[in-house]
Amino acid sequence: KSSAAAAFDVGRDGRLIFAPNVPGLSNRSLVWVDRQGKEVPLTAPPRAYFYARVSPDGQRLSLDIRDENQDIWTWDTRGTLSRVTRSSESEQYGLWSPDGQWLIYAATQQGKQTLYRARANGIGSPELIAEVAGAYPNAVTADGKQIIFRSEVGTKGANDLLTISIDGEHAIKPLIATEFDELNAAVSPDGRWVAFQSNLSGRMEIYVRPFPDVNAGQWTVSTGGGLKPAWGPDGRELFYISFDNKFMVVPLTTGASLAPG
Asked: Which of 31, 36, 220, 224 is least enclosed, having the fewest CB within 10 Å?
């Protein structure tokens, strides 16, 4: 229905064969990209990959695969794809815990939006963190105690960034919540900075603020628009995607303040 196209045929005996419409994405391939833009394909088969994140030890990927199952998977450097979630409903955005033991994700359970975590090795049952309307996890803090998530039901109908504690009472607190859209938060490896995108200027740009005291300053990192920030492993670079689908990188000098290159 969504594409106004159908894949079917009818045999001479009158039997119908068809491919059902599956919510999600067409097949994509996973590749490593080096600094010169050279792509090296991974051995993972083409599937409807949406969200990939490298594990803290660099040996695995978490994969949000939006095909007929819409589950969280992992891929390792041996070339093995392993299924982590097995629900009949939708699971999305697998985030690694800092110790690499857990994957935190959004799930739709009986029509309700929830935040879960599951063992990255697939053993045991997933654990419910909280039921949070319109919540999509963006990052786990460096101490592993909080999730930064995007809420679709934020200030004046805009997307806001909030935090929720993983253990205890699962307290929810606003992080960056304005009348503008804030989304795609990424915490630096040392836990001192949070990058995000916002349409504060009238178009999406990449910004960085101190963390957890996000009101102590703000720096604009992108020029000409930017989406989906990601930190380099040493915290001295910030990557993002430009409006014309180019990978961009900005060197950062950090100390008491931050200076984008």
From this structure: 36
